[in-house]
Design a protein that fits this description.
Blueprint: H1 7-13, H2 18-29, H3 33-51, H4 56-62, H5 68-79, H6 83-93
Helix pairs in contact: 1-2
């Protein structure tokens, strides 16, 4: 998910207008394409934090965030703690195979 994913490109791939694609996407999944993509990026970043000891900057880039600051802002708005603190708490309390994400990204302002 490191590449830029644009709603315009997704709509074009399905030969739909951006507005029509966005409307049916939200009707189907309950969130906009942008929020869905952020959810997926945060979810996969959480798995990476549990499964590896990579630096958070590397994880941010791997999952499509432009820098660690943007990753930290989005992550903190979802989980209420920084990625570093989340990693420390979750590595102590559970294994990666038990990880089930809980996301509340409806109000994320990226």
């Amino acid at each position: 998910m490191a590449t830029r994913i644009r709603t315009m490109d997704l709509a074009a791939a399905l030969e739909l207008s951006v507005s029509h694609f966005s409307r049916i996407f939200k009707q189907s999944l309950g969130v906009s394409p942008r929020i869905y993509i952020l959810q997926r990026r945060i979810t996969t970043a959480c798995s990476s934090m549990l499964l590896s000891d990579l630096h958070l900057t590397d994880i941010a880039y791997m999952h499509g965030f432009c820098d660690q600051s943007h990753f930290t802002r989005v992550f903190n708005s979802v989980h209420g703690v920084s990625p570093q603190e989340w990693r420390r708490l979750n590595k102590l309390s559970q294994s990666a195979t038990d990880y089930i994400p809980t996301l509340a990204l409806n109000a994320v302002a990226a």
